[in-house]
Amino acid sequence: xxxxxxxxxxxxxxxxxxxxxxxxxxxxxxxxxxxxxxxxxxxxxxxxxxxxxxxxxxxxxxxxxxxxxxxxxxxxxxxxxxxxxxxxxxxxxxxxxxxxxxxxxxxxxxxxxxxxxxxxxxxxxxxxxxxxxxxxxxxxxxxxxxxxxxxxxxxxxxxxxxxxxxxxxxxxxxxxxxxxxxxxxxxxxxxxxxxxxxxxxxxxxxxxxxxxxxxxxxxxxxxxxxxxxxxxxxxxxxxxxxxxxxxxxxxxxxxxxxxxxxxxxxxxxxxxxxxxxxxxxxxxxxxxxxxxxxxxxxxxxxxxxxxxxxxxxxxxxxxxxxxxxxxxxxxxxxxxxxxxxxxxxxxxxxxxxxxxxxxxxxxxxxxxxxxxxxxxxxxxxxxxxxxxxxxxxxxxxxxxxx
Length: 402
Hints:
Number of domains: 2
Shape: globular
Number of helices: 7
Structural class: alpha+beta
Largest sheet: 9 strands, mixed
Radius of gyration: 23 Å
Strand content: 25-35%
Helix content: 10-25%
Number of strands: 24
């Protein structure tokens, strides 16, 4: 992924100027934003967060109470949640932050302009709110619990609960959270990603139609094609958003607008523009990113996907290249600054597998070694990478075997 220092410096400057202008010009945007200083704003919960549902009538599979003291961020409940299960959590108690004159409840303190630069574990919720996450720490997406919430878990994994606060700025007090886990709804359709040695039709004839690497506009070879997904466009969008991946903005103008309106939310960090790369003679159809905002400037998991110009037994094939930005290095093409990728790109391929397979939307997973596998090369910007040559193949659950 190419990174232009001057462009991003200008972007940051534009954002800062826009924020500062809100202090002096009472625009409609500013007025509507500052209104949240005095009332709890209706935070938006994006597609990747668990969905709200009515409390089931069945008996809970698990019932447990967890104590959260004011100096804690996350606590592992020890509860293993399965995709599709209802997580019903009720929180009581209060906290008091040093700079607050009143107690904070599990709903949290509404975020206003003064709180703009505080990067919380879940930026879409108020400071001090009770939050949760399901799955491994590195990939789990936080969601708001508040005083009470019933959610349907989109993924399988260990449930943790926490307080939406910084480790350097904690409150004093205790929350008690009652957690009940209910079985999935009777009509829920979920899949356990089954590891298989092969997927019908995914063979060397198919790989002969797919370039091994993507390229930049000048035709310089870059990232390795390291995964395929079989599924419809709607299914592709659903599996990525459910797993917490965020669609990447296509241009700087959109990013600046998001940065202002979303007030340094996680999404506005992740949607920093992704440079176009080419496969099948055209730019990527999708760009997706997955990271925490505190480190996204230098580090983010990201990928590009192209719809193949052919089908597999009547099913849509998506071809992807995934890499992990880990810092910066010199661009050998122009002596500029570019993102440095982790040279062990198999780790990013495995990261894609882990995040998508836990959603309950993937039916089969295979690792296929094509003829003459790609195992070592350099990116278009001069950085080196290596791989065992295997290509990850995921068949989404909506597809039927033909």
